[in-house]
Design goal:
Blueprint (H helix, E strand, L loop, with lengths): L2 H23 L15 H11 L4 H14 L5 H8 L6 H16 L20 E2 L17 H5 L2 E2 L20 H9 L36
Parallel strand pairs: 1-2
C-alpha cells in the first residue's frame, strides 16, 4: 500500500470515528453502537475542526449541533486546549466557527473566540478538500464568517435535525453533569443523600460494619 493510499484510509477511518462520536451526542446520523468511554466534547470539537474539512456534511452538522447544545460547552476550556497556538489554520477555523454560532445567537458566549485580528488572505483559501487534498467547489454565495478568516466555502446552511444531548448513555456523562450543575467552578457539587438517624447506610453493596451504624436508645 502506498503512503497516499494509507493516508486516505486513515482519514476515512477518522471521519467514521467522528460521525460515531457526534451521533452519540445528538447529531443526526446512523448510530448502531455505543462506545465504552466518556466523550470529551471540547477535545472532540477541536479535533473535528481539522478533520471535518474533509467532510462538509459532518462539519455543518457539528455547527447545527452546537447551535442546539452549545451552552454545554466550555469556552474557557476550548481556549485552554488551543493553548499556545496563536496563528495557523486551527485558530482561523475556530474563529470562523464561533462567528457562525454567534451570528445565530448574539447572546451566546462564542463571541469570545472570534479573532478580530486574524489577517485576511488576499486570495481566500478553499476550506473544504477531498481525501486527495483537492479543493471542493463552492456553490452559491460564500460564507461571510469564513471569508473573514481567509477561507472560501459555501454559505452555512444547516438542516436543524440535531437534537438535545441524550443524557442516558454513559458516553455523555460529562455533559449530563454539566446540565445538572453548570459549567463554572462555583457550580454546586452533587448532593449526597443523608442517612436518616438510627438507620444504617445501605447504598453500597454488602453489609456495613455495626460500628458505622447509629442506633437510637
Amino acid at each position: 500500500m502506498s503512503l497516499e493510499n494509507l493516508r486516505q484510509e486513515v482519514n476515512e477511518e477518522l471521519l467514521r470515528f467522528l460521525w460515531r462520536q457526534w451521533s452519540q451526542l445528538g447529531v443526526a446520523g446512523d448510530l448502531a453502537f455505543e462506545d465504552r468511554w466518556i466523550i470529551d466534547p471540547e477535545a472532540l470539537l477541536m479535533f473535528s475542526l481539522e478533520v471535518g474539512r474533509y467532510d462538509p456534511r459532518l462539519f455543518d452538522e457539528i455547527i447545527d449541533w452546537t447551535t442546539c447544545n452549545g451552552r454545554l460547552l466550555s469556552i474557557q476550556r476550548l481556549k485552554n486546549i488551543l493553548g499556545p497556538v496563536s496563528r495557523g489554520s486551527l485558530l482561523k477555523t475556530l474563529s470562523a466557527f464561533a462567528g457562525v454560532i454567534d451570528s445565530r445567537d448574539p447572546k451566546s458566549r462564542w463571541r469570545r473566540l472570534i479573532q478580530e485580528t486574524v489577517p485576511a488572505r488576499e486570495t481566500p483559501e478553499p476550506f473544504f478538500v477531498d481525501l486527495d487534498d483537492q479543493p471542493l467547489p463552492v456553490i452559491g454565495e460564500p460564507d461571510r464568517e469564513f471569508a473573514r478568516a481567509g477561507y472560501l466555502r459555501s454559505r452555512v446552511q444547516t438542516r436543524g435535525m440535531s437534537v438535545p444531548v441524550p443524557m442516558r448513555p454513559a458516553t455523555n456523562l460529562l455533559l449530563r453533569l454539566r446540565s445538572l450543575f453548570g459549567l463554572g467552578p462555583r457550580s454546586p457539587p452533587p448532593r449526597t443523600r443523608r442517612r436518616p438517624p438510627g438507620r444504617c447506610f445501605r447504598g453500597w453493596p454488602g453489609r456495613r460494619p455495626l460500628s458505622l451504624c447509629r442506633f437510637r436508645r
